Automatic annotation (TrEMBL), chains A, B:
Keywords: Amino-acid biosynthesis, Cytoplasm, NADP, Oxidoreductase, Proline biosynthesis. It comes from the Bacteria. The keyword Lyase does not apply. Pathway: Amino-acid biosynthesis; L-proline biosynthesis; L-glutamate 5-semialdehyde from L-glutamate: step 2/2. Its main location: cytoplasm. This is Gamma-glutamyl phosphate reductase. The lineage of its organism: Bacteria, Bacillati, Bacillota, Bacilli, Bacillales. One of its GO terms (biological process) is L-proline biosynthetic process. Transmembrane segments: none annotated. GO terms for molecular function: glutamate-5-semialdehyde dehydrogenase activity; NADP binding.
Length: 413, 413
């Protein structure tokens, strides 16, 4: 039996035990995990150094090496994350709905763990612990499939987590790392419906598409964000400019950053908006009118409207009204986060109704699409699909339901 | 452009209009559909006769021909189904949760349509109208892909539905039949992520597996039910026997029928249970002990424990306690509907906690796993998967959410 199948079987078994634990038992185990990660800091850093060494030899870029890097401080952040999970409300066991049928049947839907979660992710080794511990808190066993470039770090982190679980109520087999990072084994993992209840890919568009295209296990798609800020005719000057700058520049490399600003052609402050963005170092790519009016605006290509730049580059377009803005977003958006800035309530209503996206904003930055910012305390990813969970996914997104029906001998007639 | 892509584009466009309609507008259109189906009864029956003729020529079995058959009465039932939808609460627009963040952001999650639903189903032409109208009520456009054996009936039904929608608020393009029933086009449909938001297969295990194995569009898996009734030591005699008979025989061909009865070895009435089942015409397949004690019980094979017989055949096994029953269900069950009959509250609690299935029953028949019986009014299928919806799926399962965030200029710091 290969590594994948062997671990999958252990996970399924462990998930049954884990699903029956109390909140206290899970929290105690998570605190042990946090403590042990701190204790084993040196070992983890030592193993992480091997990945960095190998990465340098393979000529990885500085930014990729930075994603791979663990430091004392980063380990402490990871540990803080695990400790914070202890304070989050346990979703398991919650009664969602309860009702009685005319024949006397008492129906109750309750929240239960999904079972076994398959995490598929790229270089950042912190995902190993962040996602792993989040799965445990929601009562799920987790199969972690990271990238080969982080294999020493991931092995070390999982080893430390498993050591910490010994002697706790959570079976150590509830956390497994798939050490075989070959494509063939990944493909097998994506089709392991008998053992995996869900796959959650986290990473770039390429990784996510690989999982979606090849999986038969249901996928919680987290994804690409080509987010827009639409500045309506009535937008307050400072608010609009501040939000556009924040949405673009606060952290350009993430999915909830804005990639295009749409400006109502009658909004009087477009010149100041563009100048301020330019001063902040943003490369501007605009429509014909803007290009002819502002020498520092480069012409936007068709591709630019569809791009998630993940960089300080912004596409800018003037539109004649909210409907043109909605149509543009409909054509190029990725159903992630879309904002309207303005004081015309009817336009806001129309924008909220017509734009199909996970999160819609009025007079706020798209950067708030985030589990922490939504108050979920932690996040396993941001769903850009429509089934199961949409937008930031916290602990609840890692659960399913069970219907419990209590009768007194009812039969169907 | 092929038929599939052309219709998919029209559906996507229509879904946007449909998603913005009021409940009254949708209900008025549904009533028109109901009326017109009655008016065009003769035409529908005439077209249905062509399918039956072709089916006889191809040597279809009597039961398959019966599934294909429409009669005046069956059309009236279909029409009643559409009319009943009008009385169901419209899930669209419902506020699910609303909260405020410390920074003043007002977050609200609301229920919105999925968009475009792809229904993939087998012979029964009633699904064309049942599923089609249910999708419309939830604000979704629907692509119907039935089987070639029902093509004339399906064409007629969709033609009549579309005619009825003319002049209503629902665009007629919101309902489309994929007339090309080739496998190649089906495979293309299953991977049409740009236009389809979800696939719902309804039919036998083969059809469902074909969709799951080939789809990249998210699938709401409806499925096979290998359901169990566990009769605990403390079960009341008449209640247990009545429920076992009902679960097996009320309608043996459906997924919520019981396929195996597990009996606690100390329950004193096994002889009467088996005799009564036999008298009702049930073929019994049992474990060694039962076979050696009762001449009319045939030996059950390993395959029998895993079978969804869909026929008056029942596997019967004696178990030593509730844990053995749970383990048996864990090994052979399909996570659909599982029942425990008995008066030991601790065993019921354990059964409810440990058995992983969509619906669990205490002292009631598994036959209640059904949208109508749950009080959902209508049902698009019974989900046996864990994401999005589990168990009977009513209108809510055909919706997703949108988060609406209202700010006063908040940016992320």
């Amino acid at each position: 039996m290969g590594e994948l199948l062997e671990k999958a079987k252990k996970l399924k078994k462990a998930s049954k035990q884990l699903g029956m634990l109390s909140t206290i038992e899970k929290n105690e185990a998570l605190l042990k995990v946090a403590d042990h990660l701190l204790t084993e800091k040196e070992f983890i850093l030592h193993e992480n150094a091997k990945d960095l060494e190998a990465g340098k030899d393979r000529g990885l870029s500085t930014s990729l090496l930075d994603r791979l890097l663990l430091t004392e401080e980063r380990i402490e952040q990871i540990v803080d994350g695990v400790r914070q999970l202890v304070h989050l409300e346990d979703p398991i066991g919650e009664t969602i709905e309860a009702w009685e049928r005319p024949n006397g049947l008492q129906i109750q839907t309750i929240r239960v763990p999904l079972g076994v979660v398959g995490m598929v992710y790229e270089a950042r080794p912190n995902v190993t612990v962040d996602a792993g511990s989040l799965c445990l808190k929601a009562g799920n066993a987790v199969l972690l499939r990271g990238s080969s470039s982080a294999i020493h770090s991931n092995k070390a982190l999982v080893q430390v987590m498993r050591e910490a679980l010994k002697g706790t109520a959570i079976p150590e087999d509830a956390v497994q790392l798939l050490e075989d990072t070959s494509r063939e084994t990944a493909s097998e993992m994506f089709r392991l419906n008998e053992y995996l209840d869900v796959l959650i890919p986290r990473g770039g568009a390429g990784l996510i598409q690989t999982v979606v295209q090849n999986a038969t296990v249901p996928v919680l798609e987290t994804g690409v964000g080509n987010c827009h800020v639409f500045i309506d005719e009535t937008a307050e000057k400072e608010m609009a400019i501040t939000i556009a700058i924040n949405a673009k520049l606060h952290r350009p490399s993430v999915c909830n950053a804005a990639e295009t600003v749409l400006v109502h052609e009658k909004w009087p402050y477009v010149s100041e908006l563009l100048t301020r963005l330019l001063e902040k170092g943003v490369e501007l790519r605009g429509d014909e009118t803007l290009v002819s009016s502002y020498s520092f605006v480069k012409p936007a290509t068709e591709e630019d409207w569809a791009s998630e730049f993940l960089a300080p580059i912004l596409a800018v377009k003037q539109v004649s009204d909210v409907k043109e803005a909605i149509n543009h977003i409909d054509q190029y958006g990725t159903k992630h986060s879309e904002a309207i800035i303005g004081e015309n309530a009817e336009n806001v209503r129309l924008f909220f109704q017509a734009v199909d996206a996970a999160v819609l904003y009025h007079n706020a930055s798209t950067r708030f699409t985030d589990g922490e910012q939504f108050g979920y305390g932690a996040e396993i990813g941001i769903s850009t699909q429509k089934l199961h969970a949409r937008g930031p996914m916290g602990l609840k997104a890692l659960t399913t339901t069970k219907a419990i029906v209590r009768g007194t001998g009812q039969i169907r007639s």
